[in-house]
Amino acid sequence: MTRRTDTHPDLTDPRAGAPFFSHWRVGTPLRQRQTVEAVAAVWERRPWPADGLLGYHLYRGHDTATLMHYSQWVSEQAYEAFVKTHRQERVDEIDTVVPGIERLGLGRYRHYRSVARDGDPRVPGCIVIVDIEFDGPDPDRQRAWVDAVLDALESEPNPHPGGISAHFHLSTDGTRVLNYAEWESAQAHLDALAAPGDGIGSATERWERVQTWPGLKSTTVSRYDHALGLIPG
Predict the structure, then answer these.
(1) Calpha distance 62→166 (Å, rounded)
(2) Which of 13, 168, 195, 206 is most buried by a 10 A CB count?
(3) What is 63-82 written as a DSSP string?
(4) What is the rounded distance in angstroms from the CA atom of residue 161 to the CA atom of residue 5?
(5) In the beta sheet, which residues pair with residue 178?
(6) How far is it, in rounded angstroms, from Cα 206 to Cα 67?
C-alpha cells in the first residue's frame, strides 16, 4: 500500500544510503499541478514498489516550470531493481496524462553532513536547493568545501532567523555538492540574500574562501514548495 503524507522527509535518516534527486521540466503552472496529481494517482493505486524505497517526494519549482523529485533508497541496487520491474509502467501512465514532460536527468548522491537546531519545531515553508558544480571529480574537494561552508555558518555573526536547516549531499561522481536547505518561507530566503555580503552569509574571510574555492565552476540556487510525499502504508 502507498500512502500520501504532508510530512517533509528526514534528510538525515541513516537508512537512506542512496538519496537521489531528479528534475522534470513541464512548462507551466497548470502542467505542474497536473503532473503532481498524475504522479499521486499512479502511485496511490499501486502497491508500494520496493522495501528498499523509504519515501518519494515531489516539489514544485518557484520558476513555475519545473518539478524536483527526491527519493530515499537504502541502496543503489534497490533502485536498479525498481527500474527493471516497476518504473516504466508508472512513467508511461504519467506521460499519457501529461505528455511532453522533459526529464532532465537523475543525480545520485550520498548525504554527508547536516546542520540544524535540535528540537526545532518549525515546518519548512520553502526548500532552497543550492547546486554546486566543480571542474572535475574530486571527492576530497567535495568534503573540504562542505566543511568550509559549515565552518563559515558556525562563525556567522548575523545568521538569518528564517533558516531552519541545511543538508549537504555529495554526488557519487565526485563533481557536485547539493545543499537541501529548509527555510521558513521564500521571503525569508530572499531577505537573507539581500542582506550585506555576497549571498547567504556576511562579508567575512571564511565566506569569501567558500565563494572563491579553487575549481568551483558554478552555483545555482532554486526554490521549491513541497507538493507531494509518498511513503509505504
Answers:
(1) 19
(2) 168
(3) TSSEEEEEEEES-HHHHHHH
(4) 27
(5) 131, 169
(6) 33
> Cα 131 to the chain's mean position, in Å?
9
Is-contact 218 160, C-beta < 8 A?
no
10 Å CB burial of residue 17 (0-12, 13-18, 19+) is middle
Q: How far apart are the first and last CA of the chain?
A: 5
The pLDDT profile of the chain, 233 residues, written as one tens digit per residue, is 999 999 999 999 999 999 999 999 999 999 999 999 999 999 999 999 999 999 999 999 999 999 999 999 999 999 999 999 999 999 999 999 999 999 999 999 999 999 998 889 999 999 999 999 999 999 999 999 999 999 998 888 778 899 999 999 999 999 999 999 999 999 999 998 887 654 566 678 898 999 999 999 999 999 999 999 999 99
CB half-sphere exposure, 108, CA atoms < 13 A: 12
- Angle between helix axes 88-97 and 29-44 (nearest 10 degrees) is 140
Residues forming beta bridges with residue 102, ordered by sequence position: 25
State the cell numbers at 201: 552569509
What are 3's three cell numbers? 500512502
